[in-house]
Design a protein that fits this description.
The protein is an alpha+beta fold. It has one domain. Helices cover about 25% and strands about 35% of the residues. The protein has six helices and seven strands; from the N terminus they run βαβααβααβαβββ. The protein has helices at about 15-30, 50-60, 70-75, 90-95, 110-115, 140-145; strands at about 5-10, 40-45, 85-90, 120-135, 145-165, 165-185, 200-204. Strands 2, 3, 4, 5 and 6 form a five-stranded antiparallel beta sheet that branches. The chain has a two-stranded antiparallel ribbon with strand order 1-7. Strand 5 and strand 6 (about 165-185) form a beta hairpin. The longest helix is centred in the N-terminal third of the chain and has 14 residues, at about 15-30. It is elongated. It starts with a strand and ends with a strand.
């Protein structure tokens, strides 16, 4: 009975030829500028192009004055803006009455009025975000995963508009007007940092 040893190379690890080819291409094209590094955009489709625009529209909503027709004009309605979530009164209860320590008496009058109407109560939840991610720095270090630096900029806005029948009775918003984040990832082993371990199989 013989003993055989099989060596498995790490899956996904780049070959020497592939690395040399990338080096050659980068050398010939002179890709020393960060413009050769990837970038990405992540956004929610909406009528608004900035945080200030959506906040200005939201400020026009007046409880017990603004109806669903006006909400459509402002863009806060599922018929005119994608990704608007409709909540029923049970969803609203879960949001504002998460435990027994909080009662309806603790809520805003508009919320109390809406929840008391049960099936006549609903809410529009809007989540809008717009972020841009750009990698920068040394192209070769980034290309071979030794160091990747990324800046993320943009904004996000969240709003909840509670309606009793066709009338807005309560509104709430939150957000980040100016997102500016920095990420710095260092991998001393470069392209081998996340490779699988080498396995040895011993069989009879």
């Amino acid at each position: 009975m013989g003993l055989s040893v099989k060596k498995f190379h790490p899956a996904g690890a780049p070959s020497i030829l592939s690395l040399l080819a990338l080096l050659l291409i980068c050398g010939l094209s002179g890709c020393a500028s960060s413009k050769y590094l990837p970038s990405s955009k992540d956004l929610t489709r909406s009528p608004w192009n900035s945080y200030d625009e959506i906040k200005a529209a939201f400020d026009q909503i007046q409880p017990y004055q603004t109806d669903t027709t006006k909400l459509k004009e402002l863009g806060f309605a599922p018929e005119v803006t994608p990704n608007v979530q409709i909540l029923n009164y049970l969803d609203i209860i879960q949001r504002f009455l998460p435990n027994q320590s909080i009662t309806t008496k603790d809520l805003d009058g508009g919320l109390q009025d809406c929840l008391a109407s049960r099936d006549h109560c609903q809410a529009y939840e809007i989540r809008i975000h717009h972020t841009d991610a750009e990698r920068y720095g040394n192209v070769m270090a980034d290309l071979f995963n030794f160091r990747r630096r990324t800046t993320i900029t943009g904004w996000e806005f969240q709003a909840l508009i509670v309606l009793k029948d066709d009338l807005a009775v309560y509104k709430l918003y939150s957000g980040r007007p100016n997102i500016n984040e920095f990420r710095d990832r260092k991998n001393p082993l470069g392209p081998l940092q996340n490779s699988e371990k080498i396995f040895w199989e011993v069989a009879d």
